[in-house]
Amino acid sequence: MGSPHQSRSLCDLAMANGALSSAGLAFIARWEGYRGRLYNDAAGHCTIGYGHLVHLGRCNGSEPPIFLDGITNKEGLDLLNRDASKAVRSVNAEVVVPLTQHKFDALVSFAFNVGPQAFADSTLLKKVNLGQHKLVPAQMALWTNHGLPGLVNRRRAEAKLYVQGDYQ
């Protein structure tokens, strides 16, 4: 038998088929921001809620009727959870080492933001899979689109979540 500390750590580990925690979803939601009405995002695409892509191109009145009168915060969170499932699947498919819940959630946030393919191709993923967890924050910091302040702050928060389990 291992020590109680070892048992507790093993109980906290997630592997393949991990799920995004409610704290992880809230973490992503804070970074995405909520808008209950249709809007054109920074790339000029019709969006609603927590960054849910309604369609490519500007909002033009052809949007599904369910979005025309806006959505509630809960509906936005439901869409975000559904949208984040692609990142969850990517982390589950690509990570081959055990992770604590907070590390899993941090990687899902990262994969959600950069995209599942970019995550799968990243050196960051290689470091995770080699168990080089101390190198992950530096890898995250490279993904800031040439130092955009919002992305710099998001990567710092993801790194803090990854290393310390701090969801704030």
Give the SSE map.
Layout: H1 4-11, E1 13-14, H2 22-32, E2 35-40, E3 46-49, E4 52-55, H3 65-68, H4 73-94, E5 99-100, H5 101-114, H6 116-121, H7 123-129, H8 136-141, H9 149-164
Antiparallel strand pairs: 1-5, 2-3, 3-4
Helix pairs in contact: 2-5, 4-5, 5-9
Short description:
The chain has one domain (4-164): Lysozyme, CATH 1.10.530.
Low-confidence stretches: 1-12
Distance, first to last CA: 35 Å
The average pLDDT value, as a whole number, equals: 91
Instruction: State the CATH class.
Output: Mainly Alpha
Strands ordered across the widest β-sheet? 2-3-4
* Overall number of domains: 1
Tell me the series of helices and strands, N- to C-terminal: HEHEEEHHEHHHHH
Reported by name, the CATH topology is: Lysozyme
Strand content: 5-15%
* Strand-pairing-aware structural class: mainly alpha
Main sheet makeup: 3 strands, antiparallel
Instruction: Give helix % range.
Output: 55-70%
How many helices in DSSP terms? Answer: 9
Q: Count the E strands.
A: 5
CATH architecture field:
Orthogonal Bundle
Rg result: 17 Å
Anisotropy-based shape: elongated
Pfam families: Phage_lysozyme
Keywords: Antimicrobial, Bacteriolytic enzyme, Glycosidase, Host cytoplasm, Hydrolase
Enzyme class: hydrolase
Catalytic activity: Hydrolysis of (1->4)-beta-linkages between N-acetylmuramic acid and N-acetyl-D-glucosamine residues in a peptidoglycan and between N-acetyl-D-glucosamine residues in chitodextrins
